[in-house]
Structure formats: C-alpha cells, structure tokens
Backbone:
C-alpha cells in the first residue's frame, strides 16, 4: 500500500532533505506532500486522513508548529494521524507543551535519514495497533 | 566547511541559496537595530524577526553539519533573546557585537573565505558568552522598559534603511589617507608650478594651470570635509549606558540620583567618541559617588533628597561642549589646598578657579576612599590626559555646598594620524606611520660615511642615514651612534633617521603650530601624547626633500 | 574658560550668579596699579594683572626646532598647546634653569595666549601710580627698551615691562 507523508516546514532546504530521505530504502515510492507554512499544512492535513506521518516544523513564521497542533486539537482534525514536532532544540518543557497539544513525538535537528526511518517504523506500528485500514 | 560525510552533502548549494540571504538579512537587521537603539527605540519586532531567522540558519547549518555557522547563529539567537528581555542591555557595544557576528555569519554561510577557520567562530561564540554573562541586566530581566530621557530626535523620516550603507570605519580612514596623499601631491604641483613660472615666465597656460591647481585644492579640501563628516556619530552613542551606570552607582552608594541628559544628537567624530566614553563615565560616577551627598545630608542642607546630575552636549562653532554638572557639595577647597601644599605647590596666590582646576594635576585626588565603581579605571588626572590627547580641554567650576560642573570642549573633527613615537635626546617626536617603512636596529659596522654622510644598506638599496639630533637641532652634544634608525619614506625617497628609542605606535591628534613658533620646516605640527606631554610631529616630506635641515 | 564654553554653559543649579573671574576681585582705585611681579635673577619685574590669565607650574616644556629666538618651546595647558617665551634671553639674560619655583605666567595679548617663563612669581602687588617713574636714563641696559617705567615702592624696585615690545618676536 503506497504510503503518504506530509512535511510542513518553511525551509526549502529541509524539503530537499526530506525528498532525499523519502527516496531511499523502503520509503522510496511513497507520496510526500510539502507545505511551506502552517496554514497550508493544515489544509493539506485536512484533505488527507490517510497520512502515515506528519513531520511538522516548530519554528515557522505566522503559524508555528504548536499553533497548528493546537488548532488541530481544538477542531478534532484527524486525531489518529501521528504528528511529529521537528525542532532544533527542545527542553522537557517544550516537549511537555507539544504533547499537551497533541504531538505524538519529537524529532530534533540535526537528524539523520535513519532517524526518519525509525520514526516512520514507529508510526506504522501505531497504525497497526490501532487497526486502521 | 566540511559537509563531506554529511548525508545531505549534495545539497550544499541549496543550503547557500536559502541561508545566505537570510544571513544577510540578519546583518542588515542588526545595523537597523543599532540605529533604533541610538534613537531610544527597543526594536522588539526586529529582534523577534531576526531571532526567527537565526533559528532557521541554526537548524539548517546543523543539518548540513556546518558547525561554525550553527554555533554563531545559536550564539546570536541567544543574544537576541536576551536583548529582547533586557532593554537596558541594548547598547552600542551590544549592537557592535551583533553586527560583528552577522558579518561572520554571512562569511561562514556563504563560504566566502576558505581561510576563515572554525576558530574564529569559536572565538566569537566565546565573546557572546562573555557578553551575556557580563552585560547589564544579565541577572535581572524585565527592568524598566523605558529610559528616563529621550536620546535625540526620532529618525523616522528620510533616514529609512534604504538610504544608508554600512561601511567599516577603517575604510573611511583609508580614504582619508589616500586623500592625504592627494594633498601632498597637490603641494608638489604647486611647487612645480612655481618652478615653471620662474623658468618660462608668466603666460596664459600657466595662468590656467594656477587656477586649476587652486581648484584642485578646493576640491580636495571639500572631499576631506565630507569624509570627516562621515565619521561623525551622535554623542548619544556613548551616553546610552549612563542611566544604568548612574542607577548602579547610586544604589551602591546609597544615594538618590536623578540623571538628566540632553543634546544627545550632537555629533562627534567616532574616534573621539570611542575614547570619550571612559573619561565621561568617570566624571559621572564620580559625581554620584563623591559629588552628591547622602539624602539625609541633603535634606539637612535644605536640598531635595534626590541629587541631580546633568549631562549636556552642545555644538558651538566647530567644537562640542559637554558639561557634567551636579548639585552636590562642591569641591573641597581646603582639601585641595592641603593636598597641593603637601605636594610642594605654592597655592597662596592662586585664585579659586585655578585652585579648582588643580584637581586635574596628578596626585591631587582628594577622595581618599576609592570605591569599586567610581574608582575603577581612571583618576581625574588620567581622564584629563585622555581628553587632552583627543585635542580637547577640560575645566571645572565649583561652589561649596552648591555643586560642581565639569566642562569638556572637544573638536568635532579630528585629524588623527597613526604615528610612531620616537625619542631623541629625551624629547619625543611623532613620525606618521604612512611615512615609515621600517625601524631597524643600527649596527655601527653597517653604517659607513661617504662624503660626510652616513649611508647603509637597506633591503638591497643604499640609503642615507642622518642623526635625528642633527636634523632636529637638539642642543645635546651626546651624539654617539644612536641605537635605532627609522626608515622614512616620501614618494620614492628613503632616508634613515637615527633615534635613541622607539616608544611605540600611537594615534595622535594633530594640532597646528602656534603662530608664535614661526615656521619650522622639520616639524609640521604638535600633538599631546598620552602622558600629557607635547610632542612635535616630524614633517617627513620636507625632511626628505633635504630642504629641511636645522644645521 | 573660553567664551564659547561660557556661551553654552548655563548657570550651575542653584547658582545665582556667575563664578569668579581669573583676575583680581576688588576693583582697584584709580590711583593704584595692580601688578603681577616676578623675579629674573634678582631683579623684580611687574606686568599689569589685567594682562595675566593665570600662573602655572612648569610641567615640561617641549622643545620645538627652528623656532624664533626666545621661544623656549611649548607646553600643555589643559589640552591647549601654549608657546612659552624665554623672557630672560629676551631681556639679555642667560637662559632659565627650571627650578621648583619657576613658573609660567600665561598672558593674553590680542586674543592670543602666550607663556612667559620666569624664575619666581611674587604676590600681586598694588603700587600707587605716582610711585612709577620713567626708566632712568643713566642706566641703559638691554632691558630699558622693554620698560614702561620703574616703580619704587616699599624699598622694592619693580621694573614695569612693556609686554607688547617684549613679545614682538616676529616683526
């Protein structure tokens, strides 16, 4: 089954990096959606309930990662889709705050392709355990 | 930049494409922040935007494995965060630090200089770290958000960011040096014109030549004024940190103080401003620590418990007058008199004004107690020396029980020449470095006498070497071989000048020659050295012309 | 203080009037001359106090090459460069040897300040105008050209210097 992912990040460089990562190994062939800001990303999320994983950058202008999560939580939008908050640093407080608004996991920069692969594997696990179709 | 083993190594160009403009925006924003702070605005929005950009650069650099850029971005991000919380720390020094970091960041991101090693990034990060721990407000955040005084007019018209360029101060200096050369060449032209006139007599072409040469001089002089003006900065650049200082000192001394600052927009040469800060700081902290009485004493004397210190700057016919006054207890005349006498000075016939100005004489500080804050750094005599070396003057007035006022008078623009200070027969002289090729230890065997002139080999050439004492006509008869010679150059000419000691390099303020001194040819001006003594500036061009020779 | 600075200076807080000037305080009655007197060798000379800006100790006189005769050099007067004149040689005496009692008398003529190097400065002396006589003709020394008169007062002989003549260095 072709998997699909969503990357919400305002950095084109990061888009390139993700593109590279999602073209390797067992991720090759999957569909990756890219959004350059929180608002756009929210709209794409709304349109794709089948997403395996969302990679959401924390630090974005206008609507940052936390705000996207908060809105999703408030509007109960696809709560089953795991969203990983991607940040450059993160204290315990940050993690707690993220989880409070529904972040499923945290990913810290700099990350390696293997980190994404591990994340995807866990997301698949989550899906299987939930019995989603 | 080693992104070799990095999985995203191929994306280096993308990294540069994305992050270099960001870094440049950061740099521009820092310059804009500097100007905001000068006009008393905190620039919070700008700080937030910059912080976001730095965060992005940091993350991207981390992903690419470019540690130096990551570290600088991180350090700057921290600094911006701190500055956003502590408006009191938004000083000229802070801005300078940011701007330096911004420049470094651009270089690291753009990979512009391969010789820029990671060590400079580490060094800068250390600087930021040191600054953050030492900066005012480092321990306390959220102090008064607004300073008590407005630092000059709001610059929201005409001077928008688009109208200014950022230029390294040293470039201005370089331009002025080139201009200086132009002026020297102009003098040569005048000389040539005169010789031609003598040779061929008057004529239409010569007349035209005369006019053109004159116009050239006017043009060069105008250019000089323009460049000098470009070096001007408002006094508020230096005065910015005073409210905080006064608060700190007042607190430490248990005094209540109100500081009033006006005239911050008065402009001074950057070179003067850079060095004016410390003496001014000393005067102000002195006023708080020693000039003002404690609240109880003040109330007993019928004064308001809160002491008043006033810092005023104004521009008056080519000079900038800065006045630091307080309404405290005034100078202790008896103490000054006693101290002066203990130093062997005869102060019987000295009037009050002269007595007060004795406080600038070395050793005459009557404040026995040296506090950590106001005693740091300078004494009044050193402060006076610094101001004199800048070409300025300082005087004091005082009324017992009523207050003290220090008046500084500074030239708006300076002619500053980086010079080599040498000693000849116990007198010091300044040789402009632009005319110094090298200083050499004189070996007696290396200097031969040909036609009664000393000559020596220098870098493959044979050059004349003259005794400075002979050139300058010093009365001392001690003219054994002096241990050093300075190779002076002017145009294509070179000549060695034997001196006793090489004191060092110094930026000196050129002062003209008093008309009473006539028209010496070997010296072109005078200057006041850091120790307060006057030194003559050698006119290298004329000395090398062979025109100038005392004997 | 320079007139520029005074123009800018506002009265000190709480001060009602301006501060004392450098010259003597009480106005001299018309019959008295206020003189600043100084000694060169053992002779006493005097100049009107109104021409004197201040008296300072000698804190280093920097020699300047190629200056006119009788210019000893320059010194730093609170940031200004002050030319110092060797009055002794001007009056035909040997050059001064600087001692702790040497002083520089800062005078002001036609808006310019100059320093006079003297051996010792005495107090400001008030002499009655009628104690001043023209320089005695029979005593003709190199000095008499520079005198406006001689004051005999309280067994002192004070020679009054004509500063304009003394300082006319470059004709």
Residues:
């Amino acid at each position: 089954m072709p998997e699909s992912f969503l990357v919400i990040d305002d950095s084109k460089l990061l888009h390139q990096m993700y593109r590279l990562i999602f073209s390797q190994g067992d991720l090759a062939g999957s569909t990756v959606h890219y959004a350059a800001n929180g608002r756009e990303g929210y709209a794409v999320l709304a349109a794709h309930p089948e997403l395996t994983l969302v990679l959401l950058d924390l630090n974005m202008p206008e609507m940052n990662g936390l705000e996207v999560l908060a809105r999703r939580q408030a509007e109960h939008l696809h709560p089953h889709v795991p969203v990983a908050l991607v940040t450059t640093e993160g204290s315990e407080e940050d993690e707690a705050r993220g989880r409070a608004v529904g972040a499923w996991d945290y990913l810290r920069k700099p990350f390696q392709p293997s980190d994404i692969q591990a994340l995807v594997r866990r997301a698949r696990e989550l899906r299987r355990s939930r019995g989603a179709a | 930049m080693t992104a070799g083993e990095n999985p995203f190594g191929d994306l280096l160009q993308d990294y540069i494409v994305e992050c270099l403009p960001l870094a440049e925006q950061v740099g521009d924003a820092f310059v804009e922040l500097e100007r905001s702070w000068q006009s008393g605005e905190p620039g919070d929005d700008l700080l937030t935007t910059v912080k976001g950009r730095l965060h992005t650069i940091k993350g991207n650099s981390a992903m690419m494995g470019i540690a130096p850029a990551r570290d600088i971005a991180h350090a700057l991000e921290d600094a911006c965060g701190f500055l956003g919380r502590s408006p009191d720390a938004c000083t000229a020094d802070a801005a300078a630090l940011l701007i330096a970091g911004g420049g470094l960041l651009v270089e690291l991101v753009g990979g512009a200089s391969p010789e820029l090693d990671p060590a400079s990034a580490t060094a800068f990060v250390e600087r930021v770290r040191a600054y953050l721990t030492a900066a005012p407000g480092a321990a306390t955040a959220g102090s008064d958000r607004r300073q008590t005084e407005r630092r000059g007019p709001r610059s929201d018209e005409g001077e928008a960011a688009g109208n200014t360029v950022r230029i390294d101060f040293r470039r201005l200096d370089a331009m002025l040096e080139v201009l200086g050369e132009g002026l020297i060449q102009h003098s040569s032209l005048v000389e040539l014109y005169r010789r031609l006139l003598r040779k061929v007599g008057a004529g239409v072409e010569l007349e035209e030549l005369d006019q053109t040469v004159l116009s050239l001089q006017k043009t060069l002089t105008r250019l000089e004024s323009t460049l000098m003006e470009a070096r001007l900065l408002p006094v508020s650049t230096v005065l910015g940190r005073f409210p905080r200082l006064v608060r700190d000192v007042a607190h430490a001394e248990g005094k209540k103080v109100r500081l009033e600052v006006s005239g911050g927009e008065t402009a001074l040469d950057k070179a003067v401003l850079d060095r004016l800060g410390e003496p001014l700081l000393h005067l102000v902290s002195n006023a708080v620590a020693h000039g003002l009485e404690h609240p109880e004493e003040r109330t007993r004397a019928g004064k308001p418990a809160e002491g008043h210190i006033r810092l005023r700057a104004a521009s008056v016919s080519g000079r900038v007058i800065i006045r630091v006054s307080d309404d405290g207890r005034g100078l202790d005349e008896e103490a000054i008199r006693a101290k002066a006498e203990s130093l062997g000075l005869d102060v019987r016939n000295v009037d009050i004004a002269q007595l007060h100005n004795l406080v600038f004489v070395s050793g005459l500080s009557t404040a026995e107690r040296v506090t950590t804050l106001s005693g740091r750094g300078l004494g009044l005599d050193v402060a006076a020396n610094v101001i004199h070396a800048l070409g300025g003057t300082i005087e004091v007035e005082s009324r017992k029980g009523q207050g003290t006022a220090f008046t500084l008078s500074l030239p708006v623009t300076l002619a500053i020449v980086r010079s080599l200070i040498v000693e000849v027969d116990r007198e010091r002289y300044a040789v402009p470095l632009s005319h110094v090729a090298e200083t050499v230890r004189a070996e007696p065997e290396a200097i031969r006498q040909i036609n009664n002139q000393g000559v020596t080999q220098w870098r493959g050439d044979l050059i004349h070497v003259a005794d400075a004492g002979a050139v300058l006509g010093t009365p001392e008869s001690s003219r054994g071989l002096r241990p050093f010679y300075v190779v002076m150059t002017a145009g294509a000419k070179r000549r060695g000048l034997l001196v006793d000691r090489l004191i060092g390099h110094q930026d000196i303020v050129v002062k003209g020659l008093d008309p009473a001194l006539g028209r010496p040819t070997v010296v072109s001006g005078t200057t006041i050295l850091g120790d307060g003594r006057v030194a003559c500036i050698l006119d290298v061009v004329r000395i090398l012309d062979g025109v100038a020779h005392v004997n | 203080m320079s007139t520029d600075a005074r123009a800018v200076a506002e009265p000190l807080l709480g001060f009602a009037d301006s501060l004392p000037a450098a010259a003597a305080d009480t106005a001299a009655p018309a019959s008295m001359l206020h003189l600043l007197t100084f000694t060169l060798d053992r002779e006493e000379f005097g100049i009107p106090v109104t021409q004197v800006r201040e008296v300072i100790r000698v804190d280093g006189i920097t020699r300047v090459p190629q200056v006119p005769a009788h210019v000893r050099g320059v010194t730093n007067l609170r940031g200004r460069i002050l030319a110092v004149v060797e009055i002794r040689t001007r009056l035909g005496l040997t050059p001064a040897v600087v001692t702790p009692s040497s002083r520089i008398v800062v005078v002001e003529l036609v808006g310019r300040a100059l320093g006079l190097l003297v051996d010792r400065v005495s107090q400001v002396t008030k002499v009655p105008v009628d104690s001043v006589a023209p320089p005695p003709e029979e005593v003709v020394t190199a000095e008499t050209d520079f005198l406006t008169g001689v004051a005999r007062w309280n067994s002192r002989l004070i020679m009054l210097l004509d500063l304009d003549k003394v300082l006319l260095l470059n004709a």
